[in-house]
């Protein structure tokens, strides 16, 4: 195996061209394919993958029972449960993420990246308060909410706020730092991205307590100062 994360893919024999292995291979992940929950359990007896994808849509049952058995054996391994179109989501499966067929490669890979552990030898990490921003794989982990995949612009926008906590950032500053323009005649793009950031970090995005609006001026990220030096954000120059 290479240095890429190892994904255990559980899927039926007759999947053919609809196999998720194609999407994963194009993203340069190492994949081991097994054809049943029983085969997966046997393999897990001696191995430890970074992620398990259980594609129940390729099997005769909804896979809830088998997925639950995998969870008991691989207690700390993230699991994605894929089900057939129209199949009701069943949280009893014990998975971390539930997907309904069909879904795009981008949606699957976003979920995969969010669940895989960061490579601390390659990953650039910015921490402040209850947030950890992974710059390389572009995701944010928020205590109490989990980890969210970010687009390049969302990652850049959130980084500016984390690097300037409790500081008013004007619309002009944000447009310049993130979109490389100081034109603010139409800031609908900025407004949409602010809403998406709030969906990641706020308990109630409709009533933000962290990323607040300063009417007529800009936005401010309210974060309690870190208690120790090790908690401070690592300075990173804005791109």
- Please, how many helices? 7
As a percent range, the share of strand residues is 15-25%
Q: Mean pLDDT, as a whole number? A: 84
Order of helices and strands: EHEHEHEEHEEEEHEHHEE
What coarse outline follows from CA principal-axis ratios? elongated
Poorly predicted parts: 228-239
Sheet of most strands: 5 strands, parallel
Report the span from N to C terminus: 35 Å
CATH class of the largest domain: Alpha Beta
What does this structure look like?
This protein is of the alpha/beta class. The protein has 2 domains: 6-115, Response regulator (Rossmann fold), CATH 3.40.50; 125-231, Winged helix-like DNA-binding domain superfamily/Winged helix DNA-binding domain (Arc Repressor Mutant, subunit A, Orthogonal Bundle), CATH 1.10.10.10. Helix content is 29%, strand content 21%. The chain has helices at 21-26, 37-44, 64-73, 105-115, 152-163, 171-179, 188-201, and strands spanning 6-10, 30-34, 51-55, 79-83, 97-100, 125-128, 131-134, 139-142, 146-149, 169-170, 211-214, 218-221. Strands 2-1-3-4-5 form a 5-stranded parallel beta sheet. The protein has a 4-stranded antiparallel beta sheet with strand order 6-7-8-9. Helix 1 links the parallel strand 1 and strand 2 (30-34). Helix 5 crosses helix 7. Mean pLDDT is 84; it is low at 228-239.
